Amino acid sequence: MAAPTPKQVFIQGITRDGRTFRPSDWAERLAGVMSGFRPGGVQPGSHLSYSPWCVPTVINGVKCVVVNGDLREAEPMAWDFCLNFARDNNLQVAEACLLPEPPPKKA
Fold first, then answer.
1. Which of 9, 18, 33, 81 is the most exposed place for a label (fewest CB within 10 A)?
2. Nearest 5 degrees, angle CA 100-CA 70-CA 44?
3. What is the pLDDT of residue 106?
């Protein structure tokens, strides 16, 4: 079975020299800036939720922003903004494929 092609880029809140990136709400701020970039474009009230293409999360205790590859196709400048943010702040970046959560086991 072939490994899935990476569909997302994970911008991690750890610098390349291993320090935790500050401020502590950086992931929410970045995702908030990107909230207008979404399938179907900006809709009334869409500024109140994160774009499905740029979502803050915590993985193994590390704040991250998961940037979906679909953003690159829809808005190349927004994609570049996210990657330049990571580069300019010396953040670790990994390409991966976010796997869905398994369904809960029935009792």
1. 18
2. 95
3. 75
